[in-house]
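Request from the bench team (R.T.):
"We need a structural guess for the complex before ordering more coenzyme A. Sequence and SMILES attached. Just send the tokens back."

Command: build protein-coenzyme A structure.
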Amino acid sequence: MQDLVQRIYGAGSRFHIGDIGWELASVPPERQAGWRIALWSDGDQDVAWGWIEGNGLLLVVDPARPEVAGEVLDWFREETGPAVQRLTSVLESETHLIDAIEKAGFVLEHGRPYYTHHNITLDDLGTPVVPDGFTLRHVRADEIEKRAAVHRAAWSDVAPSKMTAEAMAAVMSTWPYRPELDWVVENSDGVFVASALIWLDEQHRAGLVEPVGCAPQYRRLGLGQAVNLGALHALKELGGVEARVCPRGDDGYPIPAKLYQSIGFRPGLRTVDYVGQKLDL
Ligand SMILES: CC(C)(COP(=O)(O)OP(=O)(O)OC[C@H]1O[C@@H](n2cnc3c(N)ncnc32)[C@H](O)[C@@H]1OP(=O)(O)O)[C@@H](O)C(=O)NCCC(=O)NCCS
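Reply to R.T.: structure attached below.
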């Protein structure tokens, strides 16, 4: 799945290899029970994949092979059955997918939460600053428990986080994770209170920031900015020239986009949602 994402990566593509690394590794196997993933190949080249979670589909299709998108959508219908209201979302630039999705009878639906790609080049980054008593650094490979704990803390006010040390260990052993790009802010007691992980696609010299978080009691101190900037500087040192992050773009969850824009990320393409017609049987 990452090979195909990397091969077709560009400004108009939905996913970065880091999206797949994070999404696959951060969810423990027992919570993947309802997932179905299929890959389409032509000879030794992968040309498409589909990933069903519940009634939703994520799909990646080589733009040079647009006809395969119809096969992925047929598989989606067969796997979910005609009585299910199927959902899918794509980046607005993925016209080869949109054509096939509309041909399969899906209609554009407004009003759902969506994501907006935000982009930054690394030539003019600000300097990360943390208040007295805090330390900014990257994690070490053996700090799995602490790394999982800061993720749980940061996401605890959204919903109880299911992040475990085992899942974080899986993330930290997933290609192309590297601890030099996994940054944290540590308080004076040695507790991690903010984090930002960047995934580097060396072929495209492009980073993906995913995920970012700050524990609720430490917010609005500039730690989110500092930990992002620390990780972005490290990305540049490792050869990166640009980075992407994909926060929500709708008004229902606006704060992360404000954080990223405050350090220089600029909004670009957004995701759009399509709903399949449910048959009354
Ligand atoms: C998003 C998050 C990481 C921000 O962390 P933070 O340490 O509070 O961010 P900072 O203090 O560095 O804030 C930087 C800028 O972001 C914006 N911002 C942050 N929180 C804000 C808020 N509650 N309201 C409005 N703007 C806000 C401001 O522009 C702020 O700059 P300012 O304080 O000078 O006005 C934090 O809220 C969080 O962990 N949320 C839950 C997890 C999450 O949603 N992660 C992002 C997923 S894409």
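Two things stood out. The pocket of coenzyme A is lined by residues 154-155, 158, 194, 211-214, 219-225, 247, 255-256, 258-259, 262 (CB under 6 Å). The first strand starts at residue 35 and ends at 42.
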